[in-house]
């Protein structure tokens, strides 16, 4: 189905024309009765019926709304303009909202790519752009949006880990913008059949499930400590190498292998330890 424009006439102008048509029909009918002319009576009745039928086709369209017009099961078109209109008589007029709306998903329990159970929810901002598809290609497009949104959220959540301490990995917690963009694109692909445009999709809730939250917090803390220690060790090695190289280049010290090893050990211990070190002053050998 593709949306198309249907026939409609400005309602105020149409009311004036229909009143004139009704008066004309009444005049013909009155003259037919007076003159006992069956033809005039039939013509007057015909014009009165036509005026009445078009009066019943009066419809009001509010701003950011549309009316889908069907005639005995056949789709005639859509009225998108707002105001009072006269359209084809004996038609059904279904209202479709064109306003921007949002859908808040429930908190869904899914497994991330590592198999960890997590809770996730999102808000989807959308609007209808094709009233024909929304009305005829899907059954209750609002329910369709709700089900497809939750399906897309589940699918995206299973593609990434909840968290990671490497910069190369995309995670649900650390890359919310990228995940939201992918979610919006997947939703657009799923909901295009319903004539819906996705304006934005954002995660509103993300957490480990309650049954593993405590254990995953400990794991998260352990990963953070290991990651921090790795950075400290790499920095300490670089600082130690730089210090020894400068001492040797400036001829401040002439170190044997044994003394160099001891100095490296002392420097690494001093830099890496998370507690303050107590210096030991060497005063020389005592006889």
UniProtKB/TrEMBL annotation:
The keyword Membrane applies. Pfam families: Band_7 (PF01145). Coiled coil: none annotated. This is Band 7 domain-containing protein. Keywords: Membrane, Transmembrane, Transmembrane helix. The keyword Oxidoreductase does not apply. It comes from the Bacteria. The chain crosses the membrane at residues 12-34, 40-62. PANTHER family: BAND 7 DOMAIN-CONTAINING PROTEIN, MEMBRANE PROTEIN-RELATED. InterPro entries: Band_7 (IPR001107), Band_7/SPFH_dom_sf (IPR036013). Residues 56-220 form the Band domain. SMART domains: PHB (SM00244).
